[in-house]
Amino acid sequence: MAVIQPIDRRVDLSCAPWTMHEFFAGSGLVAYGLKGMFSPIWANDISEKKTAVYSANFKNNHFILDDIKKVNGADLPCAHL
Q: Which residues contact residue 51 at a Cβ distance below 8 angstroms, ignoring those fewer than 6 apart?
């Protein structure tokens, strides 16, 4: 019996020529709006629900669930935007 794998419908934003940070990312509307131009390499939000939606929408390993007040700018990866 063949095993049917679920289709991954998450958006892959990694092919864009420029990189960006996405502060207060929420569900990722800015990332989606800039797809093809900018690829988020770092994103954050404080809401667990928004984190779950972002992760459901995008293939990513760059989302940080934390308060923006705890983010040290020197620790962010270098990005174009």
A: 45, 63, 65
Here the tokens at position 16 are: 């864009």
Side-chain-side CA neighbours of 16 within 13 Å: the count stands at: 21
Alpha-carbon distance of 26 to 12, in angstroms, equals 17
Burial label, 7 (beta-carbon count in 10 A; 0-12, 13-18, 19+): exposed
Residues 10-53: pLDDT tens digits? Answer: 888 888 999 999 999 999 999 999 999 999 999 999 999 999 99
Show the beta-strand stretches assigned E in the chain. 18-22, 38-45, 63-65
